[in-house]
Design goal:
Helices cover 36% and strands 14% of the residues. By secondary structure, the protein is α/β, with parallel strands linked by helices. Bound molecules: (2R)-2,3-dihydroxypropanoic acid.
Length: 323
């Protein structure tokens, strides 16, 4: 029996690539370089499925150009699907799947990494030491803020927001306040207080960590007004999507000393970074590492594989994305 053909836009860790090769007739972007929208549209014409990542533009124009070909399913390698136009896909009878759940812990871990690095000024310390500028221990050197007992504000109390809050509450005795569009009745084994607005969270938190999906509805959800509500020692953590934060307003707040720092794993124009964030004080910048563990990336690939297997077997897909 002929295997369905699948186009994979980037290289994956070995175990998940092997699973895909076993189940499907795979074409891989072996160069592992970012593809253009045109190349993705071409792949849609000639393959039964495509498996894009967060860096691949699968917008309306791409789908329009790729429609009418073989592609019937866009099986995203990742949970966030704001780079895929779901309305255009469904108009052309293509379904979308994603990989929720398997990257929750890895992403929450990176949020905690950024919190600790910014609160304890670890980025500044590391840069100082490597530059040969450390003159030795002294009681007033690089004093940061203690995590234990502080208040963490979560914007978006979904799976990753909860996993981050849980680590902070149970591991660091932090108080949790949060904003979520719908009511969250149960946080599980930690306490969290839902507040009515993003600004209210910013006002009451020492750290604000973003965990909402990207896209038009959440664009700049943390903007000038919310940043102005934060205390001067307050820290912003973003492991969600670059565009949920107004980067210019954030850079203004950092350079003006209106907040205490930021830890960012995602950016508006990735991989290009706003130069005003690069040279702002107490900022830790990571290259979108949220889900970057071997275990998690393999689990993401395996989840893509399971979604595709179910689809081509005519079954319900485990992780449909609804437009
Ligand atoms: C996702 O899954 O959306 C991540 O940002 C990519 O790892």
């Amino acid at each position: 029996m002929t295997k369905p053909s699948v186009f994979i836009t980037r290289r994956w860790p070995a175990a998940s690539e092997a699973a895909m090769h076993e189940a499907f007739d795979v074409t891989m972007n072996d160069a592992d370089e970012q593809l253009s929208a045109e190349a993705i549209a071409e792949a849609m014409l000639s393959h039964d499925a495509i498996a894009p990542t967060v860096t691949d533009p699968v917008g309306e124009a791409t789908i329009e150009s790729g429609a009418g070909g073989k592609c019937r399913i866009i099986a995203n390698f990742g949970v966030g699907v704001n780079h895929i136009d779901s309305k255009a896909a469904s108009r052309h009878g293509m379904i979308i799947t994603n990989t929720p759940g398997v990257l929750t812990d890895a992403t929450a871990d990176i949020a905690l990494t950024l919190m600790l690095m910014t609160m304890r000024r670890a980025g500044e310390g590391e840069r100082e030491l490597r530059a040969g500028e450390w003159s030795g221990w002294r009681p007033t050197h690089l004093l940061g803020q203690q995590m234990t007992g502080k208040t963490l504000g979560i914007i978006g109390m979904g799976r990753i927001g909860k996993a981050t809050a849980r680590r902070a509450a149970l591991g660091f005795g932090m108080k949790i306040v949060f904003y979520n569009r719908s009511t969250v009745n149960d946080c599980g084994d930690f306490e969290g207080e839902q507040l009515p607005t993003v600004e209210a969270v910013c006002q009451h938190a020492d750290l604000v960590s973003l965990h909402c999906p990207g896209g038009e509805e959440t664009r700049h959800i943390l903007g000038e007004k919310a940043l102005a509500a934060m205390p001067s020692h307050g820290i912003v953590i973003n492991t969600a999507r670059g565009d949920v934060v107004d980067e210019e307003a954030l850079a203004d707040a950092l350079h003006g000393g209106h907040i205490g720092g930021a830890g960012l794993d995602v950016f508006q124009g990735e991989p290009v970074i706003n130069p005003r964030l690069m040279n702002a004080p107490n900022v830790v910048l990571l290259p979108h590492l949220g889900s970057a563990t071997t275990e998690t990336r393999n689990a993401m690939g395996m989840t893509v594989c399971e979604n595709l297997k179910a689809f081509f077997a005519g079954k319900d897909v485990p992780n449909p994305v609804h437009s």
